[in-house]
Amino acid sequence: MIKKITRSSFETFKKIDEQFDSLKKGFQIIAGPCSVENERIMDETAQELSKLGIKILRGGAYKPRTSPYDFQGLKKEGLKILSQTGKKYNMITVSEIVDTRHLETMADYVDILQVGSRNMQNFELLKEIGRSKLPVIIKRGMCSTIEEFKLAAEYVACEGNRNIIMCERGIRTFETATRNTLDISCAAILKKETQLPVIVDLSHSLGRKDIIIEIAKAVLALGTDGIMVEVHSQPQKALSDSIQQLNLKEFRNLLEAIKT
Length: 260
Ligand code: PEP
Ligand code: MN
Prior knowledge:
Elements: H1 2-6, H2 11-19, E1 28-32, H3 39-51, E2 56-58, H4 76-88, E3 92-96, H5 103-109, E4 112-115, H6 123-132, E5 136-139, H7 146-158, E6 164-168, H8 184-193, E7 198-201, H9 202-206, H10 212-221, E8 226-230, H11 248-259
Parallel strand pairs: 1-2, 1-8, 2-3, 3-4, 4-5, 5-6, 6-7, 7-8
This protein binds phosphoenolpyruvate and manganese (II) ion.
Manganese (II) ion binds at residues 34, 204, 230, 240-241.
């Protein structure tokens, strides 16, 4: 069954490549705030990112938060802000889908859907996305094996959608020094055993900023197809994941460090 996936194409990334120059050939950086909070923050962040050559803008509008009392996202309003900002700066947009009922609305506003870690085994969601043929980033479930991760992609591919990007975002272990434990073996194995683009989410893997440059270099050395990084113009005031989001200067430093 997994063999089907090994023939999946890089259509999504190829399309992006055709439209825009990438930082490195084939290497894409997806950046932007954890959540879309308001127009001003999206604008300040995207303006700087686009100046730096970043082509793919992220921002969550439906936030799967651990606590129901935490900020849940601006929902459709957030999608509208993300979409407007993306258009203004000529950037491709990515946002998380949490429910099959949101598919049509999401399709109206975002270019690439994201299936979050908590929904990696929401099979009905995966099947609907498969039928939609929309490009999708699938994030590894925080307690999922590599095999289960590949099978999640298979659910999408089975329905005829091969526009899949795999995202390693760390798994739960006994370690508490990082938010999750980044499994670089997973990225290497997916690169070897599938033909899907593989990216690594540095922010949710680490949950901290002080080692992000070293880890980004390691991820680049693996030969992955890109990274995802949370960037916010005022992270200290962010409504979600405040600690791990890079400010604009920190993001510039990261970019500088991995360019060389
Ligand atoms: C996110 O990228 O906004 C997110 C919630 O990540 P994850 O699903 O990996 O926890
Ligand atoms: Mn986040």
